[in-house]
């Protein structure tokens, strides 16, 4: 939506009540990327260069069809002689200033412009050119505007800075380099005598103090402050006198037992400041804040309100595909809610300060924020750096969510700036360096990046607190949660573990206005997200959610002697589990031929937690009914004190044998026939015929009475090890016919058994001795024949050996897609991949449906060709064949561990190859078609016209 302020109304914001004067705001641009104002525009290079046109403000000019695109690492690709498009854009706009503002101080405020910005008001420079893309800056233009008349603003924005240190810090970076006025522009009007800004320090013991910065204080002045809660109740107040020459004044209040701010309990208050002169109120403003005490106890940990806290965090770029870094509060809210949905408690603002609305939402919903000065791998020079530190801290100091400042990233640290932060931050938060080389710890915090599991163990021995500001790497489908459980456990258990921030939140894909709106992630450079560009949830999202769950349950399966008691660990920092709510359900799963997927709830009950304090362990009693073992599974859900689901777990009650038996019943049957020709043994029953190759023992051909051929064949092939065909024999076993094949090598035998009802049973046994990426058997089936699949097992997302979390047991159904995480289309869950703990899977194909089931637990099904990470080759390697039934699957590594075999083992024990030293036996059941059954079983015959013939 776009609007013209002056065609509709002048838009004012007022920040207080009562009769005293307050700051008034009039927007010259729109308020965000969805509510814009049209300005005149001219650019000197790229698309639409050299002619006047119009542009929406705020926006990036590339997204409005101007200029050219640059990714920051282009200088790495093309060498030192590469020159960025040094585009310059001129903005012009006409605006009016109310007559009533005459005599006030009028400032023009830019929330963000990329990069060098020169402002003229009615042909006069507003002030020095501003350098730096991510910071609020303003000019006093009181003497340059006409009141009650039209005024002209002209803004020259240079995409590249005249200060090379700004380019080094901001532009030569591993992210998209865009241009333009991308955050709002507005006028501020205040009385000449007013409060310019405040810096608050509110401690957990209820003490409050603020430095109040003043301009043009009158005679006999004083400042008063009232602390109000969310119900507007005053809980404390104070007044101090101010001298005429004072530019700031400290004011203090002692409150009694305020509700404290943490990421788990984001309690907020308002400080109402009033400036009086000669007992007359001349100005009023308010600031939102929270009472909390942040401490870095060197050699120990990070403490919030006296409790040690470990950061479960993620790095976040400000980003939306259609509009780049020009966003809005609605999008900021989406991101905060998604981060919290992953059971995270922290976010790092990589690699620059975010929009203020994002910080407001972190305050109100509860996230610890590491706010960062830009400096990707090189630092600002000291003169410009000092200005930008001031701008960042003045804007953001009062946010209780900010627990620490980051003075640049990975070598982009100007140590001369470290002492600048405390000049403006009364609470004197610790300043750290987000770095990627050992030896850059500062103030007791080591933030070293991308250490593996084993080097993390070493760093956690000390002497510094280890809070890694980047770890793992979420490119494509690798890293974000692969190995996370191992590394997180190190941090959780270690005294010096401060947690860390996964790289990163969302794929930074830009909608290219020069290429028909395709989303460009700059190949392997920018698809680093746990979610896609439009926040599509990848499998890692849910795995992280389980791993970071503050209700920590280790039980993977119900023990034989289970009586309904769950052992839990409270991994909250400030919340008792008695404040959470819990529910269990006893459920039955839908069957293969039911018309829908999912489960039916047969019994449900609430569960009450006793007094289980943070960091303590306890027991939840489910009080199960006497017949609980008659159901398929136990479902258990935890909900936090704010009503948000923490996580839900499922455990099997019935065994795979019981589940298989419940779907094998077919009411029709015929006598089994065994036929033989020169190439194969042919088993026939109930309209189904199966050919077993005489020379290999493998399935070679299939048909049912409706279809000439079914292209599922050439299996079972061992995916690891050798199988040398030795001998075959056939025999009758009751009413069944058996084809049994013996082998030399790693495969001991295959035994095919055809039942009168058409079910084909396959028993096999193999032995391996060593380390293997995967183990099991494969078959061939053309991927282009697949329509979808339905299965009882974990889902709906695929898994890796070192990312088994985040999936739940259910009857799932998925249509075929060829989604590739990080590349697109961003359709999740992916159809292809490894799926865990599968009891049965029904394949829906252009040739009809067929079903595969197993008696044994812990079977993985691999579907078709896919990969975890793209690179010189796609990783990890896949088993042979198209569809695999596996007893072991591979782990996936990260972008930063892409050596031989993707090196997933560096990120922990779960990433190591499978160590197999005992024989493995498995039984598979196949039904090639839909079993005919009586209507009371909710099964049906497939009409002939629905079956495609070969």
UniProtKB/TrEMBL annotation:
One of its GO terms (cellular component) is beta-galactosidase complex. One of its GO terms (biological process) is lactose catabolic process. One of its GO terms (molecular function) is carbohydrate binding. Its EC number is 3.2.1.23. Keywords: Calcium, Glycosidase, Hydrolase. Residues 198-292 form the Glycoside hydrolase family 2 immunoglobulin-like beta-sandwich domain. Residues 51-191 form the Glycosyl hydrolases family 2 sugar binding domain. Residues 295-514 form the Glycoside hydrolase family 2 catalytic domain. It catalyses: Hydrolysis of terminal non-reducing beta-D-galactose residues in beta-D-galactosides. PANTHER family: BETA-GALACTOSIDASE. Belongs to the glycosyl hydrolase 2 family. Monomer. This is Beta-galactosidase.
């Amino acid at each position: 939506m776009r609007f013209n302020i002056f065609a509709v109304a002048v838009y004012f914001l007022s920040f207080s009540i009562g009769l005293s004067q307050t700051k008034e705001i009039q927007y010259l641009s729109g308020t965000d990327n969805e509510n814009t104002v049209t300005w005149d525009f001219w650019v000197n290079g790229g698309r639409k260069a050299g002619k006047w046109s119009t542009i929406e403000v705020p926006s990036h000019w590339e997204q409005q069809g101007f200029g050219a695109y640059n990714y920051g690492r282009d200088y790495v690709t093309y060498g030192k002689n590469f020159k960025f498009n040094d585009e310059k854009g001129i903005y012009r706009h006409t605006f009016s200033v109310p007559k009533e503002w005459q005599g006030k101080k009028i400032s023009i405020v830019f929330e963000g412009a990329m990069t060098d910005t020169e402002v003229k008001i009615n042909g006069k420079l507003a002030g020095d050119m501003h350098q730096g893309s991510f910071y609020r800056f303003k000019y006093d233009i009181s003497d340059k505007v006409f009141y009650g008349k039209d005024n002209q603003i002209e803004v020259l924005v240079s995409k590249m800075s005249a200060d090379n240190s700004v380019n080094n810090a901001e532009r030569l970076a591993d992210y998209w380099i865009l241009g333009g006025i991308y955050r709002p522009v507005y006028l501020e009007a205040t009385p000449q005598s007013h409060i310019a800004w405040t810096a608050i320090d509110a401690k957990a013991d209820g003490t409050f103090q603020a430095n109040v910065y003043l301009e043009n204080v009158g005679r006999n002045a004083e400042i008063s402050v009232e602390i109000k809660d969310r119900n507007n109740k005053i809980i404390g107040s104070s007044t101090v006198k101010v001298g005429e020459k004072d530019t700031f004044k400290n004011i203090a209040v002692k409150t009694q037992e305020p509700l404290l701010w943490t990421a788990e309990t984001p309690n907020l208050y308002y400080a109402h400041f009033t400036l009086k002169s000669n007992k007359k109120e001349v100005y009023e403003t308010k600031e939102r804040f929270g009472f909390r005490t942040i401490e870095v106890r060197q050699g120990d940990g990070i403490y919030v309100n006296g409790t040690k806290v470990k950061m479960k965090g993620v790095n976040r770029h400000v980003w939306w595909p259609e509009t780049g870094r020009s966003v809005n509060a609605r999008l900021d809210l989406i991101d905060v809610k998604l981060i919290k949905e992953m059971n995270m408690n922290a976010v790092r603002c990589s690699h620059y300060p975010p929009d203020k609305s994002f910080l407001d939402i972190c305050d109100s919903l509860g996230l610890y924020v590491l706010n960062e000065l830009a400096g990707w791998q090189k630092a600002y020079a000291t003169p410009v750096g000092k200005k930008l530190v001031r701008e960042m801290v003045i804007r953001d100091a009062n946010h209780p969510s900010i627990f620490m400042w980051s003075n640049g990233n990975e070598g982009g640290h100007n140590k001369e700036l470290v002492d600048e932060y405390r000049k403006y931050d009364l609470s004197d938060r610790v300043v750290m360096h987000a770095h990627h080389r050992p030896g850059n710890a500062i103030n007791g915090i080591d933030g070293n990046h991308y250490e593996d599991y084993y080097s993390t163990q070493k760093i956690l021995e000390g002497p510094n607190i280890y809070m890694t500001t980047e770890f793992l790497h979420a490119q494509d489908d690798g890293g974000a949660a692969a190995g996370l459980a191992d590394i997180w456990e190190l941090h959780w258990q270690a005294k010096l573990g401060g947690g860390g921030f996964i790289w990163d939140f969302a794929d930074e894909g830009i909608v290219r206005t020069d290429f028909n709106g395709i989303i460009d992630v700059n190949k392997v450079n920018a698809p680093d997200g746990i979610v896609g560009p439009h926040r599509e949830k990848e499998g890692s999202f849910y795995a992280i959610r389980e791993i970071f769950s503050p209700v920590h349950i280790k039980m993977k399966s119900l023990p034989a002697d289970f009586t309904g008691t769950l052992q839990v660990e409270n991994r909250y920092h400030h919340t008792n589990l008695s404040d959470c709510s819990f529910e269990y359900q006893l459920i039955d799963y839908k069957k293969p031929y039911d018309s829908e997927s999912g489960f039916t709830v047969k019994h449900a009950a609430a569960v009450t937690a006793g007094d289980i304090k943070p960091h303590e362990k306890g027991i939840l009693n489910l009080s199960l009914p006497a017949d609980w073992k008659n159901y398929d599974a136990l479902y258990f859900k935890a909900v936090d004190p704010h009503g948000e689901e923490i996580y839900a777990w499922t455990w099997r009650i019935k065994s795979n044998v019981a589940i298989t038996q419940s779907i094998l019943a077919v009411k029709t049957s015929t006598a089994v026939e065994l036929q033989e020709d020169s190439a194969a043994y042919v088993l026939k029953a109930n309209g189904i015929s199966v050919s077993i190759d005489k020379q290999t023992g493998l399935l070679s051909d299939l048909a049912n009475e409706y279809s000439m051929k079914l292209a599922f064949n050439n299996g079972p092939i061992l995916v690891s090890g050798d199988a040398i065909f030795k001998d075959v024999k056939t025999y009758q076993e009751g009413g069944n016919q058996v084809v049994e094949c013996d082998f030399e090598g790693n495969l001991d035998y295959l035994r095919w058994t055809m039942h009168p009802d058409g079910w084909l049973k396959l028993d096999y046994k193999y032995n391996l001795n060593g380390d293997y990426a995967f183990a099991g058997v494969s078959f061939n089936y053309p991927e282009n024949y697949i329509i979808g699949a339905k299965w009882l097992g974990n889902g709906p997302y695929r898994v890796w050996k070192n990312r088994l979390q985040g999936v739940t047991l259910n009857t799932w159904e998925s249509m075929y897609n060829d989604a590739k995480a990080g590349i697109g289309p961003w359709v999740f869950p992916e159809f292809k991949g490894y799926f865990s703990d599968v009891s049965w899977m029904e394949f829906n194909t252009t040739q009809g449906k067929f079903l595969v089931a197993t008696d044994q637990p812990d079977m993985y099904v691999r579907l078709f060709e896919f990969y975890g990470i793209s690179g010189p080759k796609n990783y990890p390697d896949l088993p042979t064949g198209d569809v695999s039934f596996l007893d072991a699957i591979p782990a996936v590594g990260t972008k930063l561990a892409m050596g031989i075999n993707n090196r997933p083992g560096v990120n922990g024990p779960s990433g190591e190859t499978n160590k197999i030293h005992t024989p493995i036996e498995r039984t598979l059941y196949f039904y090639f078609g839909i079993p005919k059954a009586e209507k009371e079983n909710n099964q049906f015959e497939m009409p002939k016209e629905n079956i495609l013939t070969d």
